[in-house]
Structures are given as structure tokens and as C-alpha cells.
Amino acid sequence: MSIRVGVTADSRFGTNSYLVEDDETHDAVVIDANLEPEHMIDLVRRRDARVKAILLTHTDVDHVAGLPALLDAFGPVPVAVHDEERPVVAEGRPLRREFAPDATRVDNVTSLVEGRVFRAGSLAFEVLHTPGHSPGGVTLKVGDHLFTGDALFAGSIGRSDFGNSNSAALLEGIHAKLLSQPDHLIVHSGHGPATTIGEERRTNPFLR
Ligand SMILES: [Zn+2]
């Protein structure tokens, strides 16, 4: 299987949305739904990708706000999220007590479960629970690619100063589930540029 990764970012928070496509079948998923979904909709149409599901690394508003527009464009595909954050998208409950509730609520919600492969068409994702920035934070692994959400960034790690954050869990998850991966794996973060596991193991000042 040959995986092709495309990215769009919104201009307000620089939040990344990814298009992950099987180059042979054109089956695809979108990972995270940033504040400017029109860019992702354009990308999907240009590539002629067949979006089978939308996967969420976590449910902060800048990662889910584009869901209604994406679902309008791609049809009622399943939206997959860790159970700890399912009520945020299934019931429209706020993720953070620090922020006003947002109204992003969708119907067809399914679960991302640690250790259970998530299949979408010809694509298969390994699910790694990497909480700490938020309780249901996950990293999605396919081929040589890791989608780490707001757990791990190039040169940094996610915020853990919210009421439902946990800095110890964040670091433990990064060390146990991410830094244990091979050096050459490509890290695609919720914000900012791509990096590799090897680069972060060597240079990330938060992981010393
Ligand atoms: Zn974010």
C-alpha cells in the first residue's frame, strides 16, 4: 500500500487537517476538521479521493469546527473519536470547562480504541491512546506515518494546563507509545510542520 498525505491549515490557529489516501484505491480519510474546511474540500476534489471516514485526534474546537462542512461535502461518513471525548461530538458537550460550549454535534460517531485497528476502505490505522493534552487524545499510525494531534509537535509538546489535562500522562504516553517507534517514522502534528521520531528523540527539549 502506498500512502499519500496532504495537509491544509487554517489561518486562525494554524490547525492542521490531513488527507490520508491510499494511492492505489483512492480510499481516504480526513484527520481532524480545522476552522477552514473549504481547503480540505478543495484538496479532496482535486485528488478525486474517496473519503471513507473522518478521524479525530481529539476534540478541541479548532480540530472539530469544520466537521459539519466536511460531512456536507463528503456525505454522512463515520466520525471516529476516542470514547473519552465521544460526548463532545455526539452530544455537543464542551471538552474544556475553560471554554464556552461549542455546538459541533454530529450523528454518525464511532470509536477509536487503543489496540484495535480502525479500518476505512483499504486503509487500516493503528490507534495509540496518547492522553494528557486531553483525556481522549489519540495518535493514529498508518504505514510510516504518525498523526499525533496535540500530543507531540516538532520541537514541542502539547499544552497540559487545562483542568482536564495531565502533564504526567502526556509525557508518559509520548515516551511509551511514540518514542518507542522507529526513528524514520514521520510525525504529522496538530499544528506546525512535520518531523520524525528520530529528530524529536534527539532534539525535542521537552523530552529530555
Ligand atoms: Zn490544537
What's the arrangement of strands in the largest beta sheet? 1-2-3-4-5-6
Major β-sheet annotation: 6 strands, mixed
> How many beta-strand runs?
14
Low-confidence blocks of residues:
none
Please give the count of helices: 6
> Which structural class is indicated by helix and strand composition?
alpha/beta
Helix content: 10-25%
Order of helices and strands: EEEHEHHEHEEEEEEEHEEH
Mean pLDDT: 96
Shape, please?
A: globular
- Cα distance spanning the termini: 35 Å
> What molecules are bound to this protein?
zinc ion
The radius of gyration is 16 Å
Approximate strand percentage: 25-35%
Describe the structure concisely for a colleague.
The protein has helices at 37-47, 61-64, 67-74, 86-90, 167-178, 197-203, and strands at 3-9, 16-22, 27-31, 50-55, 79-82, 109-112, 118-120, 123-129, 138-142, 145-149, 152-153, 156-157, 186-189, 195-196. The protein has 208 residues and is an alpha/beta fold.
Question: What topology emerges from the helices and strands here?
Answer:
Blueprint (H helix, E strand, L loop, with lengths): L2 E7 L6 E7 L4 E5 L5 H11 L2 E6 L5 H4 L2 H8 L4 E4 L3 H5 L18 E4 L5 E3 L2 E7 L8 E5 L2 E5 L2 E2 L2 E2 L9 H12 L7 E4 L5 E2 H7 L5
Parallel strand pairs: 3-4, 4-5, 5-6, 10-13
Antiparallel strand pairs: 1-2, 2-3, 7-8, 8-9, 9-10, 11-12, 13-14
Bound molecules: zinc ion.
